[in-house]
């Protein structure tokens, strides 16, 4: 691929998926897009880039983005984070929602579904405590292909061996030949929707817990900040945002702050800079009459 076409593809991916690719990632672009070029009948990566530049093939647009996004996921990824979710965060939310008996959860960048199904398994374990509750888990992703797999709930032997405790495998999965299918009950707890994190979130509703793990690392700081600040607008006042174990809001946004006992989780309690800005804005407003 010529340098000009490489730059065009990088710019395209930044505009359409938020992905930031540096020149040293040329090998990654070529290795992931070469199969796409062959499958769609392009004689070279340069031909693929020219077709992408022409903008006449929605199939190519989707295929390029799907090939370049990373869909790495597994059940109960980062065990300690899920233990905090189970033992600290969800009990707080359940206590706070006891009157309305409703819990809304959004798993952004849900990939092939292991993450939202992991949350569903935790809630299924305490279903007696949640009798009469309405539980809504939304999983979103930019890729239609991974969402199709998530909806099917079918996983390989390798996939169920990665992080899934044996008791959950026995309780919630049925073996069908060489694959495992998750139970209809759990599939029914999660709904899926295609969503690009660069798009607006206004139509999603409001959530008590927003899970956005191991995806912001692929974006630049401004994009991370924009996504997180728009996510906070979907969050209930006492809700939580759950990030990946290696991710932080420090230096990215001051709309969220964390607590030591909830490491990896963030809430809307204002940090000092945000509080100062709010106070300053209040001082500028004319007094009420």
Note the overall shape: globular
Beta-strand segment tally? 10
Structural class: alpha/beta
Into which percentage range does the β-strand content fall?
A: 15-25%
Corresponding CATH superfamily of the largest domain: Vaccinia Virus protein VP39
Seen as an oligomer or otherwise, the chain set is single chain
CATH architecture of the largest domain: 3-Layer(aba) Sandwich
Distance between the termini: 67 Å
User: Segments where pLDDT lies below 50 for 5+ residues?
Assistant: 271-289
CATH topology of the largest domain: Rossmann fold
Mean pLDDT: 89
Largest sheet: 7 strands, mixed
Count of the separate structural domains: 2
Percent in helix: 40-55%
Strand line-up in the sheet with most strands: 6-2-1-7-8-10-9
Radius of gyration: 21 Å
Number of helices: 12
Order of helices and strands: HHHHHEHEHEHHEEHEEHEEEH
CATH level-1 class of the largest domain: Alpha Beta
Chain-wise SSE layout:
Elements lengths: L2 H15 L8 H14 L5 H10 L3 H11 L10 H18 L5 E7 L5 H12 L8 E8 L2 H9 L1 E3 H5 L4 H7 E4 L2 E4 L1 H6 E5 L12 E6 L8 H12 L2 E8 L14 E2 L6 E3 L4 H13 L5
Parallel strand pairs: 1-2, 1-7, 2-6, 7-8
Antiparallel strand pairs: 3-5, 4-5, 8-10, 9-10
């Amino acid at each position: 691929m010529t340098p000009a076409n490489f730059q065009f593809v990088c710019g395209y991916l930044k505009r359409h998926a938020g992905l930031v690719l540096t020149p040293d990632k040329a090998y990654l672009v070529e290795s992931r897009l070469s199969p796409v070029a062959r499958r769609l009948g392009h004689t070279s990566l340069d031909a693929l880039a020219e077709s992408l530049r022409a903008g006449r093939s929605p199939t190519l647009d989707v295929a390029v983005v799907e090939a370049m996004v990373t869909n790495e996921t597994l059940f109960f990824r980062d065990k300690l984070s899920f233990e905090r979710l189970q033992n600290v965060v969800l009990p707080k939310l359940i206590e706070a929602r006891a009157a309305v008996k409703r819990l809304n959860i959004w798993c952004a960048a849900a990939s092939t579904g292991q993450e939202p199904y992991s949350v569903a398994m935790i809630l299924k374990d305490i279903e007696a405590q949640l009798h009469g509750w309405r539980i809504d888990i939304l999983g979103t992703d930019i890729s239609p292909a991974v969402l199709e797999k998530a909806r099917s709930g079918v996983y390989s032997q390798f996939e169920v061996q990665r992080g899934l405790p044996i008791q959950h495998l026995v309780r919630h999965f049925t073996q069908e030949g060489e694959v495992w299918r998750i139970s209809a009950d759990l599939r029914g707890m999660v709904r899926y929707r295609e969503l690009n994190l660069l798009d607006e979130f206004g139509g999603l509703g409001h959530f008590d817990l927003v899970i956005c793990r191991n995806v912001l690392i692929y974006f630049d700081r401004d994009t991370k900040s924009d996504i997180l600040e728009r996510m906070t607008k979907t969050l209930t006042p006492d809700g939580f945002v759950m990030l990946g174990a290696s991710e932080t809001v420090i230096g990215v946004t001051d709309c969220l702050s964390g607590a030591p006992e909830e490491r990896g989780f963030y809430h809307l309690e204002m940090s000092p800079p945000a509080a100062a800005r709010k106070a300053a804005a209040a001082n500028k407003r004319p007094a009420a009459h």
